Amino acid sequence: MEFLTAFWSGLEPTLSITRLSAIWLFPLSLPICFWAAWSDMRAMRIPNYSVLALALIFVLIGPFLMPLPEFGARLVQLVVVLLVGIILNAGGLVGAGDAKFSAAAAPYIALGDLRFVLALFAATLLGAFTTHRLARRSPLRKLAPDWESWTRQRDFPMGLALGGALSIYLGLGIVYGS
Question: How many other C-beta atoms are found inside a 10 Å radius of the C-beta of residue 119?
Answer without folding.
Answer: 11
